[in-house]
UniProtKB/TrEMBL annotation:
Its main location: membrane. It comes from Staphylococcus borealis. This is Quinol oxidase subunit 4. Catalyzes quinol oxidation with the concomitant reduction of oxygen to water. Keywords: Cell membrane, Membrane, Oxidoreductase, Transmembrane, Transmembrane helix. The gene is qoxD. The lineage of its organism: Bacteria, Bacillati, Bacillota, Bacilli, Bacillales.
């Protein structure tokens, strides 16, 4: 795929994902947890689009090694964020 086409597709996909997140937040009657889950989903998809389209993650001779490193970093980040949220919620419920 041509670089200009790739960047254009990535840019349009990022804009669409951002607008979808804004639409879900402002114009739907979903619960807070549903909105939060959908927005996080859009954020992860947008991060993947930007890694693939703009940062050329899989290109080059060591593209698979780079992909593995990014997946490992994502897993560590998710464990840290979810663990922190879990500890904060548990501590908060004990103090009320």
């Amino acid at each position: 795929m041509n670089t200009i086409v790739k960047h254009t597709v990535g840019f349009i996909a990022s804009i669409v994902l951002t607008l979808l997140a804004v639409f879900v937040t402002l114009y739907t009657n979903m619960t807070f947890h549903a909105k939060t889950t959908i927005i996080f989903g859009f954020a992860f998809i947008q991060a993947a689009v930007q890694l693939l389209m703009f940062m050329h993650l899989t290109e080059g001779k060591d593209g698979q090694v780079q992909s593995f490193k990014v997946i490992f970093a994502i897993i560590i980040t998710l464990v840290t964020v979810v663990g922190t949220y879990w500890v904060m919620q548990g501590g908060h419920s004990h103090h009320l």
